[in-house]
Each structure stands twice: as C-alpha cells, then as structure tokens.
C-alpha cells in the first residue's frame, strides 16, 4: 500500500510540474516586478496571459506597458499605455494596436502598429504604421505609413507615406510621398512626391514631383517637376520643369523648361525654354528659347530665339560666358536676336551684331556679315560675303554699290 501511495504521489508531481510556477511565483526568491498575469511557464518560456514583461513563447495581454522582451507571439487586445511600452518584440505582434520600443519580425494591427524606436520586418496597420526613429523592411497602412527617421525598404500608405530622414527603397501613396532628407530609390504618389533633399532614382507625383536638392534619374509630375539644384536624367511635367542650377539630359515641359544655369541635352517645351547660362544640344520651344550666355547645337522655335542677352534679363553664372549668341542650327519663326549667330540661321527677322555662315530671313540686320545671307532685305554695316535679296545693303562698299537689288557682295 505504501508503495502504491508513493507511486501516485510521484506521478502527481510529474503531471503538475509544468504548472508549478503558477503556485510558487509569489514565493519566488526573485519575483519579476510588474508581473500581473497567469504564467504557464518554465522560467521565461511558455504561455503568459496578462502583463508579464518577459516571455519566450506566447503572450496575450489586454494593454501593453513597461515591456522587457517577447520572443514569439505577442497578442495585444487593446491600445497600449499612453506613456509608452518600451522593450522589444521579436516574432509576431498582433492585435488592435500592437506597440513596443522595437518591433522585429511581423506586425499586424487592426488599428495601428507602433515601434516607438524602430520597425524591422513586415508591419501593417489598418490605419497607421509608425516607426519612431527608423524602419527596415515593409511598412504598410490604410491611411499613413510614417518613419521618424530613415527607411530602408518599401513603404506604402493609403493617404500618406512619410519619412523624416532618407528613404532608401520605394515609397507608394495615393496621396503624398514625403522624405524629409531625400530619396535613393523611388517615390510614387497620386498627389505629390516630395524629397526634402537630393533625389536619386524615380520620383512621380500626380500633381508635382519636388526635390529640395539635386535630382538624378527620372522625375515626372502632372503639373510640375522641381529641383533645388540640377536636374539630371529624364524629367517631364504638364506645365513646367524647373532646375534651379541646371538641366542635363531630357526635359519636357508642357509650358516651360527653366534652368537657373546651363541646359544640356534635349529640352522641349510647348511655350518657352529658358536657361540663365548656356543651352547645349537640342532645344525646342513653342513660343521662345532664351539663353543668358549662348546656344550651341540645334535650337528651334516658332517664335523667338534669343541667345547671349543675359545681362539684361538674368543673373549670369559666376564663370564668364566665353561666347554670347547662337551657334549651330538656329531657327526662329518670328526672330533670332543676340550678339552673334554662327552656322545656319533662319528666322522671320534676324538681328545680330555678328552673323557668320549661312542665313535665311525676311529681314536680316547685322553689324558684321561673313558668309551668305538670303533675305527680302539684307542690311549690313560690314559685308564679307554675299547677299541675295530684293534689297541688299553693305555699308562698307563704296557708293554706288552700297545698296543694290538682287545681289550685293564684298570680300
């Protein structure tokens, strides 16, 4: 009988072993301050229901506060303590509004997901996903995805995707995508894509794409693309493309392309193309092309082409203009004006101080003409070449050869 009772007692102890911490937690020599829950655990491993600050396994709590660490699954039924939670959760955080100092792994919140310091992994909130200082991985939210610092990865926000620092990866939003210090990667937004600093990669805004620094890559805006620096790559906008210090690459503006410095490459605009410095390459403007220093390449406009008159209109770049005027192939439906025109020049009215090469116009007026000019009226102070037209004046020729019909020449 004694043997049978002993065996029954030992068996009962073995069965009760996993539950033993429940009964002895209050008598533990080093009780865990702040424990207010049911611990089905051996040490820190097992199942905790209630406020147990350190758990490896499953933790279910009504409202989180003063957390130490959870490794495994942390299920939060209600919002966290307004004073903050702290600590770290590694694994799965789920509930109405899971929150901790650092969330690492997978976070799912019906309302919000909050990493007071950081989010790392995949985190999605029905309303918002917030990383206090930094985010790594995938961050998504129905309304707003927010990182107070940098982000590395993918950020998706229904109305807003916001990064206080630098976005390295991709930001997507139907409303606005904002990176306070700049982007390396991509920004796509239904309304506005905004980078507070340099933008390198792809930037697309339904209304506008804006960078507070230089831009390298592709920038597209429904109304405007703007860079507070140089724009390099491909930029296009329904109204205007603006680079405060320069344009380089391909820029297309429905109304205007504007460069505070040089414009190099291909620039096209429905109304006007403007560069405070030089235009180099191919530039097309519906009504006007204007460069403060010079134009070299192919410049075409149905209206006016003006090169080298920057002192009257612009604050010119610090370096001097080695040449003022147009050189290459230049055509202005209304007029071509400036200090000099070299190469092939055509326009309704050409008025330059120095004309070199071949020109065609209704009226050609120049101080010096070197080459061939074909116009209804050629009017030159000093001719070194040939004039063909109804009226041809070469003031340097002796009388009576200064004004002649059909042709005049001087070498």
Explained architecture:
By secondary structure, the protein is mainly β. Among the domains are: 30-125, no CATH class; 133-228, no CATH class; 327-411, no CATH class. It contains three helices and 33 strands. The chain has helices at residues 2-16, 20-24, 310-313; strands at 36-42, 45-51, 54-61, 69-76, 88-95, 99-109, 112-125, 128-131, 134-141, 144-147, 150-157, 160-163, 166-173, 176-179, 182-189, 192-195, 198-205, 208-211, 215-221, 224-227, 230-237, 240-243, 246-253, 256-259, 262-269, 272-275, 278-285, 288-291, 294-301, 304-307, 325-332, 335-394, 403-410. It has a 26-stranded parallel beta barrel. The protein is rod-shaped and about 120 Å long. The relative contact order is 0.04. The model is unreliable at 1-33 (pLDDT under 50).
Distance between the termini: 139 Å
Percent of residues in beta strands?
over 45%
The poorly predicted ranges are 1-33
Question: What is the averaged pLDDT score?
Answer: 90
Biggest β-sheet: count, sense, barrel?
26 strands, parallel, barrel
Q: What's this model, at a glance?
A:
The chain has 411 residues and is mainly beta. It has helices spanning 2-16, 20-24, 310-313, and strands at 36-42, 45-51, 54-61, 69-76, 88-95, 99-109, 112-125, 128-131, 134-141, 144-147, 150-157, 160-163, 166-173, 176-179, 182-189, 192-195, 198-205, 208-211, 215-221, 224-227, 230-237, 240-243, 246-253, 256-259, 262-269, 272-275, 278-285, 288-291, 294-301, 304-307, 325-332, 335-394, 403-410. The protein has a 26-stranded parallel beta barrel.
